[in-house]
Automatic annotation (TrEMBL):
PROSITE patterns: AMP_BINDING (PS00455). PANTHER family: ACYL-COA SYNTHETASE, MEDIUM-CHAIN ACYL-COA LIGASE ACSF2, MITOCHONDRIAL. This is AMP-binding protein. Belongs to the ATP-dependent AMP-binding enzyme family. The keyword Chloroplast does not apply. Residues 403-478 form the AMP-binding enzyme C-terminal domain. Residues 14-353 form the AMP-dependent synthetase/ligase domain. Keywords: Ligase. SUPFAM superfamilies: Acetyl-CoA synthetase-like. The keyword Ligase applies.
């Protein structure tokens, strides 16, 4: 296996005059991208940045993400991508925890950072340093297991942890996604999801095939469809939240997706009923992958032509991992039994940055303990049940919130749901359902309970059903169940 830089160098040589990156009115060919990349490496080395030093990046989706990725790959620097939607105090924690030497990003975001750290503003300042820098740089020996990135977890259960990903991890992810999305040399990759997270893993597939990448800085359902049609985007990463917004939009026109071959859908689970609706409108375009920052994107893969007959599964084991389901003692469970999903292989992270305790807890004998509960059917397909920490224990019985959410989502008026356990004096926890309805639709508590009665055992039925306007979500589109428990978590009797 090679490094990101070695693949990119081949693309530079082979596709010199082909557009590599498009962003608004900016178009850089592979030849121009090569020159800009080397000049950034040269500049940073001139400022004393050396192999293994960390570069923090704080900006919304824009073309500089791509060239800074490559500058880190060629210079041996470790990039620290920061989600621009987070609070400045969270950014500062990540900058300090990673020990970043330089911060590069958009001026309005950098102005909110009070730390004493050298800052480079994208725009005039950034373009000037590229213009004034030389293209030659000090070449660095980079190995597959050298760190490429420290990517922070969403921190839903505490302080974010810095996941260390090597060149081997990133290349394994890119190869996995290339296979999953059936990528070939004539594809165009689109990015509307944050390039600090899921969409970034897909971006590295471009170096394998010399593809054009088109970057969009914001998501508006109608404009987005027009844009990807105009740019002939054929492969794109979307989180389920965006998929729902697209297909449930009043003016959704599936014809505008005619150039799209594969939509890589990942980031959080999607209800089978909502996925079925999307497939009905879009056809066999969705490729579902299951992974974590700790094992980027492809622990399992559900090919687009299989998805329609396996709506409640997230696929079979990906090509760069071993996977099994184990009990609390680490012993593999029988087929069909629920346990924790664990995996190992070249896709799996190196550990958590400067956090040996968390690393020891999560990585055991080379196996990554995902914290996800699931079971494997007789064909080898993985079915996720829930997060281990979100299981509701009521009257001594384990209840999986996702199972109840799947049932509630069957109602045609439901947009999205969240089921959590709230404190209960009698049962310990009670099943509590919070429901957001589609615009212009109505539903009643009685209808929801009847739906549950048809599909669930009586002990799983929600004791509390509440209709609300919206659910709190992370900047990656995940529902924040921890926040829901804070808001609604009084003891009930």
């Amino acid at each position: 296996m090679e490094t990101i830089a070695s693949y990119a160098k081949k693309a530079f040589l082979t596709f010199k005059n082909k557009p590599a990156v498009k962003y608004k009115d900016i178009i850089h060919t592979y030849g121009e991208l090569e020159s800009r990349t080397y000049k950034i490496v040269s500049f940073l080395q001139g400022k004393g940045v050396k192999k293994g030093d960390r570069i923090a990046i704080l900006m919304s989706n824009r073309s500089e993400h791509i060239e800074l990725d490559l500058a880190c790959a060629f210079g041996g620097f470790i990039k620290v991508p920061l989600n621009y939607r987070l609070h400045p105090s969270e950014h500062e924690y990540m900058i300090e925890q990673s020990g970043a030497m330089i911060l590069i990003g958009e001026e309005e975001l950098l102005n909110c950072i009070s730390l004493h750290i050298p800052k480079i503003t994208v725009g005039d300042m950034y373009e000037t340093l590229i213009k004034e820098s030389v293209q030659s740089y000090q070449e660095v020996d980079i190995q597959e297991d050298d760190y490429f990135a420290i990517m922070y977890t969403s921190g839903t259960t505490g302080k974010p942890k810095g996941v260390t990903l090597s060149h081997r991890n990133i290349v394994s992810g890119a190869l996995s996604l290339s296979l999953a999305c059936e990528i070939s040399w004539n594809d165009v990759i689109g990015h509307v999801a944050p390039l600090t997270h899921g969409s970034n893993f897909l971006s590295h597939a471009a170096w394998l095939f010399g593809l054009t990448q088109v970057i969009f800085d914001k998501f508006d359902p109608e404009d987005f469809l027009d844009d990807i049609y105009k740019e002939k985007v054929s492969v794109i990463f979307l989180v389920p939240t965006i998929v729902n917004l697209l297909v449930q939009g009043k003016n959704f026109d599936p014809k505008k997706l005619e150039h799209v071959k594969s939509i890589n859908m990942a980031g959080s689970p999607i209800a089978a009923s909502k996925l079925s609706l999307a497939l009905d409108q879009v056809g066999e375009k969705f490729v579902e992958t299951y992974g974590q920052v700790e094992a980027p994107m492809a622990i399992t893969i559900m090919p687009r032509k299989e998805l329609g007959t396996h709506l409640e599964s997230c696929g079979m084991t990906g090509p760069f991992v071993e996977m099994k389901v184990v009990d609390e003692n680490g012993n593999e469970v029988k087929q069909g039994a629920v346990g924790e999903v664990i995996c190992k292989g070249p896709l799996v992270m190196q550990g958590y940055w400067n956090n040996p305790e968390a690393t020891k807890e999560t990585l055991q004998d080379g196996w990554l303990y995902t914290g996800d509960l699931g079971w494997i059917d007789d064909r080898g397909f993985l079915h996720l049940v829930d997060r281990k920490k979100e299981v509701i224990i009521s009257g001594g019985l384990n209840i999986y919130p996702r199972e109840i959410e799947e049932v509630l989502n069957k109602h045609t008026s439901v947009k999205e749901t969240c089921v959590i356990g709230l404190p209960d004096e009698k049962w310990g926890e009670m099943v509590s359902a919070f429901i957001v309805l589609r615009e212009g639709h109505t539903a009643t508590e009685e209808e929801m309970l009847e739906l549950c009665k048809q599909h669930l055992g009586s002990f799983k039925k929600p004791k509390l059903i509440q209709f609300i306007d919206e659910l709190p979500k992370s900047s990656y589109g995940k529902i924040l169940k921890k926040e829901m428990k804070k808001i609604y978590g009084g003891v009930h009797s």
